[in-house]
Amino acid sequence: xxxxxxxxxxxxxxxxxxxxxxxxxxxxxxxxxxxxxxxxxxxxxxxxxxxxxxxxxxxxxxxxxxxxxxxxxxxxxxxxxxxxxxxxxxxxxxxxxxxxxxxxxxxxxxxxxxxxxxxxxxxxxxxxxxxxxxxxxxxxxxxxxxxxxxxxxxxxxxxxxxxxxxxxxxxxxxxxxxxxxxxxxxxxxxxxxxxxxxxxxxxxxxxxxxxxxxxxxxxxxxxxxxxxxxxxxxxxxxxxxxxxx
Length: 245
What we know:
single chain; mainly beta; Jelly Rolls; 50% strand; elongated
């Protein structure tokens, strides 16, 4: 028998003493074996890729090793904080191109820090329709902004669906330098799995309807044939990590 140094294997019928036997659905099967451990005999190499709305190459030949494709989660855990936006604006805009996945969370709190401002500004919370893919305002979270300072607001459960963004609007023309952070609470463990941040992998004609999905916070362990080029596509631009094992 040839020993494969990259995959630790054990038979279901002969579990290691003192180690709970694997349930079939929790294990990846290779013939009569299963694996629940992947030892590394060298440091993994990391490739940073950007998946966009048109198919782009994630992995190209030659292939010598297995790969892990990771779609990182922006937030994870029961309570987490995230910077929604930081910078200067002088016109209406939004964060729809970089949405926040909130599917695992029940409540959201905001801190707004304005360091410079002219004119009058409103900031709205937005939620994405998971069916049509269109964005809509859920409520105005800060209105009539005219002065510097730090402000707080909460939206509770209202508008916390799957994908979240904000938009700002100059009621009276001017500019505003600010940072806006969100704290999500009462979440379930694991990824928030925003639907807008799912990537889809396949051939050079892969689409968001035909590709194999990797949700936000998930990873896939894959091995490719010698001549296979793997592509990815998404509904928005997403940074992805590819690890060569």
